[in-house]
Each structure stands twice: as structure tokens, then as C-alpha cells.
Amino acid sequence: MRVTNARNLHGHVTQELGVRIVSGQLRPGEILPREETLAEQMAVSRTALREAMRVLSAKGLVEARPKVGTRVRDERYWHQLDADVLAWRCASMPPADFVEKLVQMREIFEPAAAALAARRCDASQLKEIELAYLAMEASRNSDEWAVADLQFHEAVLIATNNELMSSLFSVVETALGSFFVQSARKSGDFKYSLPYHRQVFDAIRRKQPEVARRAMQQMIVDARANMTGKRRTRKSA
Amino acid sequence: MRVTNARNLHGHVTQELGVRIVSGQLRPGEILPREETLAEQMAVSRTALREAMRVLSAKGLVEARPKVGTRVRDERYWHQLDADVLAWRCASMPPADFVEKLVQMREIFEPAAAALAARRCDASQLKEIELAYLAMEASRNSDEWAVADLQFHEAVLIATNNELMSSLFSVVETALGSFFVQSARKSGDFKYSLPYHRQVFDAIRRKQPEVARRAMQQMIVDARANMTGKRRTRKSA
DNA sequence: TCTGAGCATATTGTATGATTATATAGACGC
DNA sequence: GCGTCTATATAATCATACAATATGCTCAGA
Lengths: 237, 237
What we know:
Chain A is mostly helical and 237 residues long.
């Protein structure tokens, strides 16, 4: 999930400030200390701090102007689909309703992606999906399962041949990764969703978009039911 | 559409290099000149160049390592959903199939968004949708129309109360903005899609998710047909 | 009193030079 | 041939100086 490289100093600074902002410790509208003092507080040079600020600015989190200072921007300007912003959000104890929003996104584009994949994927992409499926089948514990599961869904998204779609993987799916495990654990049998995946894979292989769509839809609805414990939405959600 | 602030020098540099990379003028795997010489070529200081590099790196376009230099990363690592990356892509004469991908995204999440909005939106959000609709109705030329049209779709996305969803607006919709105009022009009457918008608005107001979904779906299918001139996909696309 | 031009000032923006850390490749010994 | 050590090129970090730019205040003039 980590995108911003924390090996570098400015990477650390970026994360540190990013988390503070996204978690709400620094509120929108608030003006940060001036570069010199902030750099001193964080024990880095102004250069490193500024490079971090540039990144945060590119993510829509802050806005800097001469004389007035650097201000935390309103949430509506944040690049919510940025992997870092999302990760920082997840790091700061995501409230249940945020997870819900992620799931909501999945419910929307994953079935559509399955349908697209059934139409458009080539042989090698299909092979990738199969490999992931076989890995799920062969998994011996829930950790192995989780890895293969993510691999499967990524392969499906890539098979759409729409890079915007696949980008949603690194954003939404990865953020949900930990919850997949959770979902698998709650059901007792971590392989409980294997038949669904089989259906999706088969439908894509046979070039049956609508079948693939429905299978994926059912899978997700079921996963949600498992996660939330009881709540179950209608199929149209 | 512009996100990266081009007022600043590093903003210019970011855009300049970003376009060069996304347009393919600088190819993945290629290693850029060292900071000193590149800064010299662009007639800026190393400071400005580095801040630009930091941003490009955050967008997944480049990767810098000591001793080896700064390398353009493979396309699969690019943050395709980043507004700048998208804008740069559109700036460099997007091939028709890329526009097609954008439309594909729209087809997937806009109907879903309309359904969500019908379920979840509050009074003030509904008011925003109405205002946008009225503005479309009152528009006297295709430019006014285009603005109001975008406003309408943004209002719908915001009314989902899912900020991930609304973020898709600034990304996908804005990129498509120019094509809306195109679509409206081709049809002769730029207000041709007003009835569709009315249907969507009414359905949301009456809390009819499925009606809203279908209306939005028809609108988009129609817009695509108008844009591509003839091609028409089945409703399930 | 109100208005507007202009000046003072605080803060970010840009530039430069020096030093440090790091990864690569080549030399050297085994 | 193979690993280790060293040289070196490059980015990373730091420190400092100066420029550009908003903001708000002062003060002249109506």
C-alpha cells in the first residue's frame, strides 16, 4: 500500500504531515507554522520540508502563498483517490462508514470490470486470472488466501484493458485488503468464496459478460454480508 | 482542469516534464540527464527542478536513485487517476481509444451514482442539482450549457455522499468536459439532452434509485452515440 | 470620514554552493 | 571464477542568501 517512499527524508516528512492532516489533527483552514520554524520542529532542513510540501500540495492537501503562509485546504479539494491520502486515512482508524464507502465503490466497478474482462481480455490476461484462481485454491491458510485473492481481483481489473480501471485496484482494493482477511476469517472457512471466484473465472473464459457481472456482484454482496455480520443489501446496491 | 499550479516555476517544470513523459517523448526506462544539466537545460535552479521531480515521483512517473539517475517508470506504475496525469494525457492529443476508456468509466459509475444520490442525498444537495438543471435550461449557448452540464454531473456525484465518488468527477468528468461540448455541437441542438437530465433530477428528487440509474444510463449511451457518430453499444455496456 | 495609492513587511519562492549518503561498477585478492 | 573492497557518479540533504509576492497599514487628498 505504501506509495510515498519513506526511505527518503522528505518521504518521512510527507507522511508525517499527511497523516496529521488527514487524521484531522491539523484542520482545514488552519495555517501551518512558517517553513523555517516547521523545519526546525521536525529537525530537517527547509529544503526537505519544502519538497514534502510540494507533494502534499500536489495531493490537494495544502496550499502555499507568499506572505500568508501554508494553509490546509478544505477536504473537498483533497485527492481522495490518491493512494497515499487513502492510506493515511486508513492508518488513522477509519470509521466504519469510510470502509462502507470503499465497499460501495467496489460494488460499482468490480462487476462492471468482470463484464469488460469477459469481452476484452486476451489469452495472457486470462492466464493471469487462472493462475490467481489456482493459487486461491491451493492456499493453506488465510494469509496465502488473502494474497491470492487480491491477485485475482487485480488480474480481472487488468484484463479490462482499461488502465483507469486497473488504477482503481491500487487505490480501492489495496485499501480493502485487510478487510478481505477479516471477511474470510469471520466466515470460519476462509475459502468460502472460492466457488464465486470460479464462476467469475469461468464466465470470463467463456466470454460471457453478463454471467461474469452477476457472479462478481453476488460475490461482493456476500462478502459485505459476511463483513458487517448481518446487513444485506438488495442486489441493485 | 488545471491542478498543478503553473504560477510557480516548479509548477511549470512539473508540467513541462510531465507532458514530455506522458506524451511519450520521454519513454519508460529512459534515464533523464542529471539534475545539474537538466536544470541548466531548462534554465532553472536545481531547487526548482528537484521540487518538480518530487511531484512527478509522487505521481509514479519517475523514480530517482543515487548513482543511477532518474528513470521514467513503466506506465503501469503511473497514477492514471491523478488529475494532472490525465490532463497531460488529454493535452497530448488523446487517441480515440483513450477517450473511449474515459467514457467507459462514466458509463460504469455515473448511473450508479445517480442511484446512490436518489437514496442518500439531503435537501441542500438536491437543491444544487436543481440549480444546475435550471442553469442548463436557461443556457443561451453551448458554452453556458457546457458549464451547467458539468455542474449538474458534479452535483449528482457529490449527492452520493461518498467523497471517493465525487473525486471521480474532478478526474474523469473534467477530462471529458471538452467532449461534452463536442457531443452537444454534433447534435445540432446543444440542449438535446435536457429531457434526460430532467428525468434524472426528478427521479433523485422522488427517491427512485432505479429510475435515476436508468435515466442516467440512457443519457450516457445517447451521448456516446452522438459523439462517435454512429457506434451504439447495447444497454448493458 | 472615506478613498485610494503606495510603502513596509512577512512569508514563500528561487538560486547557489557545499557536504553526505547511496548504489553501481570496477579492481583486487582469494 | 567468485566474493569483497574501493572508487566514483549521482541523488539527497543542508545552509544561506536573495527575489517575488501578497497583505495590511500609513497617509495624502477629496
